[in-house]
Design a protein that fits this description.
Sulfite Reductase Hemoprotein, domain 2; four-stranded mixed beta sheet; about 30% helix; single chain; 8 strands; alpha+beta; 8 helices
Length: about 270
C-alpha cells in the first residue's frame, strides 16, 4: 500500500529546519511589511498570524500599493493565570506595540492585534522578559492548556494549575528556533540538528487541545477538547482523574465525515 502524499503544509514543516524557515530573513527585509507565504505558516507555531486591514484593501489596490499588513500575537498562559506585574506588562505592550486592545481568548490566552512587522521581534522579546511566551499558542501543536483560572479556591485547584503548567511545558516544541529568531539565541543556521521527540519534523496534522476540570464546575468545557481530565476528589484531596478523549467543535463544511463531537469518557 503506497503512502499518502504529504500536503503542501506538511512539506513546509518538514523543510522548515524545525520552524526556522526564512522568518529571520523576512523580518530583516525592510522593503515589505509582509512575510513569505511559507513563513506565514511557520509563524503560527511562534504564536503569530499575519493579517491585513480589509477596509483599506480596495483603496491600496487602486494605488498599486501593498496591503496594510500587521500581525496578531497570542500569549500562551496555562490556565490564564498571570501575576499583577505580568498583567501590567501585557497592558503596556498592548499600548506600545499593538492597537491598544487586549483580547482574552476562549482558551485563556491573551491576544494583541495591529503589530507591524518592524515591531514584531521587540514585542515577543519583551513578552519573554515578563516571563511569558507565545510559542505554540498557534499552529499544529498542543495549544494553551486550560483549567480553572483561580488556583486559590482550594488545594485541588492549585494542583490542577500546576498540572496544566507541567503539561504545557512537556508539550512545548523543543526546537531552538523560537529563541534564535526572537531572543537572539544561537545561530539560525547551526550545524547541530534539533530533535522533536514528541512531534517529529511534521509536528501535528492539526492543533491539539487539552483541558482540566474540577467538578462541579465545567468552566473550561472539557468535552470540547481532544483530551480532557476531570478531577476526582476524596476528602478534599486530589486522588486522580477521569479521562475523556475526542472532543472538538471544529468542522469543514462540505467535507463528509467532518463534524463537531463531544469527548467521550474512557475511564
Amino acid at each position: 500500500m503506497s503512502e499518502k502524499p504529504l500536503s503542501a503544509n506538511e512539506g513546509i514543516k518538514i523543510h522548515s529546519n524545525y520552524l526556522r524557515g526564512t522568518i529571520a530573513e523576512g523580518l530583516a527585509d525592510a522593503t515589505s511589511a509582509t512575510l513569505s507565504a511559507d513563513d506565514q505558516q511557520l509563524l503560527k507555531f511562534h504564536g503569530a498570524y499575519q493579517q491585513d486591514d480589509r477596509d483599506l484593501r480596495s483603496s491600496l489596490r487602486k494605488q498599486g500599493l501593498e496591503k496594510a499588513y500587521s500581525f496578531l500575537v497570542r500569549i500562551r498562559v496555562p490556565g490564564g493565570v498571570l501575576n499583577a506585574a505580568q498583567w501590567l506588562e501585557v497592558d503596556r505592550l498592548a499600548t506600545e506595540f499593538a492597537n491598544g486592545t487586549i483580547k482574552l481568548t476562549t482558551r485563556q490566552a491573551f491576544q494583541f492585534h495591529g503589530i507591524i512587522k518592524s515591531n514584531l521581534k521587540s514585542t515577543l522579546a519583551e513578552i519573554n522578559q515578563a516571563a511569558l511566551d507565545t510559542i505554540a499558542a498557534c499552529g499544529d501543536v498542543n495549544r494553551n492548556v486550560m483549567c480553572h483560572p483561580n488556583p486559590h479556591l482550594s488545594s485541588i485547584h492549585a494542583e490542577v494549575l500546576a498540572l496544566a503548567q507541567g503539561l504545557s511545558d512537556h508539550l512545548t516544541p523543543q526546537t531552538r528556533a523560537y529563541h534564535e529568531i526572537w531572543l537572539d539565541g544561537e545561530s539560525i543556521h547551526s550545524s547541530a540538528e534539533d530533535v522533536e521527540p514528541i512531534y517529529g519534523k511534521t509536528y501535528l496534522p492539526r492543533k491539539f487541545k487539552i483541558a482540566i476540570a474540577v467538578p462541579p464546575s465545567n468552566d473550561v468545557d472539557v468535552f470540547a477538547n481532544d483530551l480532557a481530565f476531570i478531577a476526582i476528589a476524596e476528602a478534599g484531596k486530589l486522588v486522580g482523574f477521569n479521562v475523556a478523549v475526542g472532543g472538538g467543535m471544529g468542522m469543514s463544511h462540505g467535507v463528509e465525515g467532518s463534524f463537531p463531537r463531544l469527548a467521550e469518557v474512557i475511564g
